[in-house]
Amino acid sequence: MNKKGFVLIAAVMLLIFSPFIFSLFYLNLVTEILILAIFALSLNILVGYTGLVSLGHAAFFGIGAYMSAILAREISPNFFLTLFASLAAAIIASAIIGIFCVKVSGFYFLMLTLAFSQMIYSFVHQSTTITGGSNGLSGIPSPLIGSLDFSNPVYFYYLILLLFILIYGGLSLIVHSPFGQVLIGIRENETRLKSMGYHTTLYKLAAFVIAGGLGGVAGSLYTSFNSFISPSDVYWTMSGSVLIMVLIGGSGTMIGPVLGAAFIVILETIVSSYTTMWMMIIGIIFILFVVFFPKGIVGLGKLLLQSFSKSNKLSAISGKKSNVLYNNNVKN
């Protein structure tokens, strides 16, 4: 078994046994990390693999969250109903928005996604009869699967963990498939792919819809976790937060957004308990990563491993040279 396989199995085992290791506070923290990791992974399809930087991803997160909240309150808290309805709503919204957004690129793509996101935020903020307006929606019942109630934090954690593993595995298959390689080709040189006969606009739209749909799933899970949703979760700052998670963790990798989500959530939890200026501190850390470690935590880890392996090789070589000199001196 290679090192990556060993680390992956160890990480999964740690997550499986987390309820027996951590207190309830830390278990809820891990649950939040997994939900936001799904959100970050969804954005990574656009930013990391397709090269489309979006500042409006919170729109799909909010659509999924509010769809789940309204259905759970008004119709049924059935988990599959709220989850798949949120997924469908986010897919439809991302398909409509994506048709306009994928026609442009670069700065114009970023601004167009931000504009659509702010339109959805404005609707959520002003539609008091549907979304509760600035007060949001509270008292959202816990999800149910049959007679099984997931109000128990341990049950809900395992439900989120299962979904996270399925989504992570599914996205891994997608990015390593021929479809995923085309997305990487669009990121590297879209003009060349067009000259080869690829309809890159359709591929970008497909990536946009996949990212939006999974963003809606994350929003649905986030609502079930907090039993509350407000317009602040649809605001552009939420899009900025998840973008920071992707970039700090390492865009264009699968594990990067997960590490980024864990880093930001843990940092926010620790720093906010000491100061109200935690957002400024996170901003400073983000700037340091962008300037000095543009490949994020994953890139930093690879750099440290390379330095460590080089130092070991140099130590081994110097040790061999010392042995040779010693043997020569003994012979003489």
From TrEMBL:
Keywords: Cell membrane, Membrane, Transmembrane, Transmembrane helix. Coiled coil: none annotated. It is found in: Cell membrane. The chain crosses the membrane at residues 6-27, 34-67, 79-100, 107-124, 155-180, 201-222, 242-266, 278-298. Its main location: membrane. It is a multi-pass membrane protein. It holds the Pfam family BPD_transp_2. InterPro entries: ABC_transp_permease (IPR001851), LivM-like (IPR043428). This is Branched-chain amino acid ABC transporter permease. It comes from Aeribacillus composti. The lineage of its organism: Bacteria, Bacillati, Bacillota, Bacilli, Bacillales.
